[in-house]
Amino acid sequence: MQCRLREAKKELEKESSDVEIAYELGFASQSHMCTVFKGYMGISVGDYRDILKNR
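User: That's the sequence. What structure does it adopt?
Assistant: Structure tokens below.
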């Protein structure tokens, strides 16, 4: 799961859509990926995107 999330972070930096990332990395849905992401990372996908934009 950590490998998937590492890849998800890379894809989020490329501004890929959540749906594309989720299916590319083998999550059941975009919602599932976002739930797992928040559980492991402690922040939501949207908040992570905001952090990337403000760098």
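The CA atoms of residues 38 and 44 lie 5 Å apart.
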